[in-house]
Amino acid sequence: MELLCNAPAHATVPDRYVFPPEKRAALQLNDDATSDVTLPIIDLHHGTLSDNRRRIQVAAEIIAAGKEYGFFQVVNHGVGDDAVQAFRDAAAGFFALPAEEKLPYCSYDMSKRFRLATSTSYDRGETRYWRDYVKFRCYPPSDDNVRCWPSRPASFVPRLVEYCEAVHGLAQTLLALIAEGLGLDKGFFAGDLSGGDTHMSLNYYPPCPDPTVTMGLLAHCDRHLLTVLSQADVAGLQARHGGRWLLVRPVPGAFVINFGHQMEIVTNGVLASVEHRAVTNSVAVRMSVATHVHPTDGCLIRPAPELVDEEANPAKYREFMFSEFMEAYDAADASREGVLEFFKIHHD
Fold it and tell me: What's the pTM value of the predicted model, to 2 decimals?
């Protein structure tokens, strides 16, 4: 497998990474798409959410941001900067290993519990995306998961466990706040809706000699419930909003939060899963750490009855098992409308 992280710096973009002009990011942007729009930044006031007034206010801010953008950033979230940086350093160390040490992990087999690959599993054509990635199950740290994790660098496993424990707690806090903001029981998302193995994507984008001709990652929506993303201080994530692509500008110490398809379906469309993509840069390595909260495979997914009104707001989606959704997502090559069409209810 030909990985970008194994190659010396490129002087030019190889042909296999050059997109047709109509598919390049620069030509997909409207004139006002580069305007400086900052996504909502929500202060979680870590340690003080027991104050009922503050909790209600934060929950309302999350729902407002979710309805408007589908993306927001959180600060004062309780995950220590040291834990974040230590794992980011360990992950960068893995990508920097000699090619022969990474070779045993290289695979496009999506059933593997830890796999290293390049471009994307959803290649819509022969053009490659300027990206290497690792995908694996990161929480809970069960024996089945841990035995698949790399032994080098030596810091990888302990730093991963520490990081995932902290991010899992943050995700559960956010899900409780989302439920309360929607008028649901605070434990609504607990149990099967968030009880599947938590997955992680480590995305590695090396400097690109000409970012105008290629892409880091295709436009897509996430398949699961919630994503907690660390993008550090290098920009590259873009979110679609009102026909524009907005750059998600890094905020020191913040996590970027976005909703997956399951959140959109369970909330009957109140909180949408928004398309996003990654662009490249010519100056610095960008590495994002995305933690994805999944339902269990056997979880029954359906719009929350509290958010359905048969006359004013009927159910938009049918009931299904999460395992069925996973199969449909792969069949639709991650296309937002393609996968949702499998589950929509069309009312006369």
Answer: 0.94
219 part of a folded domain: yes
What is the domain count for the chain? 1
Give pLDDT < 70 ranges for the chain.
26-37, 122-125, 334, 348
| Residue 185 located in a structural domain | yes
- Output the pLDDT for position 348: 66
Q: What is the CATH number of the domain that holds 217?
A: 2.60.120.330
Q: What is the residue range of 48's domain?
A: 4-299
pLDDT at 274 (0 to 100): 94
Q: Could you tell me if residue 325 is inside a domain?
A: no
B/e letters for 167-194, b = 16+ CB within 10 Å, e = fewer, are bbebbbbbbbbbbbbbebeeebbeeebb
Are 150 and 105 in contact by the 8 Å Cβ rule? The answer is: yes
What totals of helices (H) and strands (E) does the chain contain, helices first? 8, 14
Q: Phi and psi at residue 196, in whole multiples of 5°? A: -75, 170
What's the Rg (C-alpha) of the chain? 20
- Report the pLDDT value the prediction gives residue 323, as an integer from 0 to 100: 93
Pairing of the two strands 114-118 and 132-139: antiparallel
Neighbours of 156 (CB within 10 A): 19
**55 domain residue, yes or no:** yes
Quickly tell me which residue has 């580069």 as its tokens: 34
